[in-house]
């Protein structure tokens, strides 16, 4: 089982549930049709997903057989799980695998990846240098040349201006 978040509230009057902070890899793609909800110790109940959509800062889930606010409110505060991690395309990585990698500008170490943010639909690396300053690097081909999990590093390019802002 893979945790994808927690139901943190309701949306509207038809029982849609707001999913709290989600992992970077989760994009609401409905290649999954069921979820497991619970506290992690008992996940025997599968719940079919009718629809998932993005609204402002949350994914909204409409669950089958949950069509009212009263029925949906029973799920608030419960963790949500998928049966397995989605398969990644070539060149894609899970955030959990990127965290802690050393970031380099060519041969010069910039710092360590501490987080990955999603800003206006764009993924950004949060790299902290030895002085504790944060450098934000867009995860785009112009800036990230190579993500090398085997050697524990990310090779960047064209980041001189970003480094000066830190």
Key structural traits:
mainly beta; single chain; 9% helix; 2 domains; 166 residues; 6-stranded mixed sheet; Elongation Factor Tu (Ef-tu), domain 3; SH3 type barrels; 3 helices
Can you describe what's shown?
With 166 residues, the chain is mainly beta. It has 2 domains: 2-82, Beta Barrel (Elongation Factor Tu (Ef-tu), domain 3), CATH 2.40.30.60; 95-165, PRC-barrel domain (SH3 type barrels, Roll), CATH 2.30.30. Helices cover 9% and strands 46% of the residues. The chain is built from 3 helices and 12 strands. It has helices at 69-73, 95-98, 160-165, and strands at residues 2-11, 16-19, 34-38, 46-55, 58-63, 79-82, 102-105, 108-119, 122-128, 134-138, 144-148, 153-156. The strands form 2 sheets. Strands 1-2-5-4-3-6 form a 6-stranded antiparallel beta barrel. Strands 10-9-8-7-12-11 form a 6-stranded mixed β-sheet. A hairpin with a 2-residue loop joins strand 7 and strand 8. The longest helix is centred in the last third of the chain and has 6 residues, at 160-165. It starts with a strand and ends with a helix. The model has no long low-confidence stretch (mean pLDDT 84).
